[in-house]
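Notes to self after the Tuesday call (sharing in case useful).
The group wants a holo model before anyone commits to mutagenesis around the pocket. I volunteered. Ligand is 1,3-dihydroxyacetonephosphate. Logging inputs and output together so the record is complete.
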Amino acid sequence: MTLHSGTMIRPALKPLPDVLDYAALSKDELVERIRWRKAELNAVILGHNYQRVEIQEVSDYLGDSLGLSQEASDTDADVIVFCGVHFMAETAKILSPGKTVLMPDLRAGCPMADFVTGDALRKLKAEHPGAAVVAYVNSTAEVKAESTITCTSANAVRVVESIPAEQPIIFVPDRNLARYVIRETGRENIIAWDGYCYVHDDMVLEELAEARKKFPKALVVIHPEARRDLLDLADHVTSTSGMVKMAEDHDALIFGTERGLVDQLQKRYPEKTMVPLSGAAVCGNMKLNTLPKLAWSLDHQRYEVTMEEGIRVRAEEALRRMLDLSGGWNAPSKEEEELEMASVGASGCGCA
Ligand code: 13P
Ligand code: SF4
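Result:
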């Protein structure tokens, strides 16, 4: 069998009919299939830090929501396979409308994102006509489209500080991140939506006290989606990629975040003390992505993420404002823009 321009490389790998057929393959076979199809499609795999270790190992880029958005915006791949949750894949599609964005499992949603709908946000905006809306990226495209600017856990404070001090802010959907931003900025004119992440909100003071007792020399680093009482006792508060950076410089850390990140760091630094604040902090939604599903997704080019173009365009404005602030996006040249638009379908979005 030949692949591209007549070069004999290896026999083409035919897609198998069902995801269960992939589950019967060995890890090596799956990895080989993933690499092969990725090269054939000019695809890139973006993986969030909470993914299973075997998904992290085949990811071309692993990171937090900000880093993944920047990567989705910059990549020259034709296909993006997003191993994370739905809002992350949606963000990639918003930023790269001409590319095919795939998710291995469409059920991988973020329950926090579902706390606020476009309708509910429009209602609150009508009650506060002068307010700016800051949407945590853990939100739907429709909510982003209703927002002034988005933020991630890595830049929420900077984003809020970019808004004039006297202007009220509606902050959606995470009440814990909002409270953290209020603490850091001293602003009182922030109206926080009452949403939360079940994984981080469930971490409690008793678990923190227990972990400190067991590892007295370890620094405690907690994600800003955790409750304010925990954040007040943390040595550091940062995003998942901020935690990865801290692990480079410290020998002992207790992580107040999802287990996938801790698994990654324990594997990378077996000689260090890298422990979870709570063993129960597992995001079942992130774990829906598996190696067999990823191989199936690439082979069948499913499930494709699509959205209404009017929503996409407005959501992109809010995301670009954030990326501009974070110094992570270069405006495309005229030529790049023309190429991008040439691949956008008649419906206005990049889907088939
Ligand atoms: P990060 O942006 O810090 O990776 O967080 C994303 C997330 O979903 C945390 O629960
Ligand atoms: Fe959503 Fe929480 Fe899972 Fe992050 S850890 S994806 S915020 S449910």
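Two things stood out.
Residues 49, 64-65, 138, 152-153, 197, 225, 239-240 surround 1,3-dihydroxyacetonephosphate (ligand 1) (CB under 6 Å).
The radius of gyration is 21 Å.
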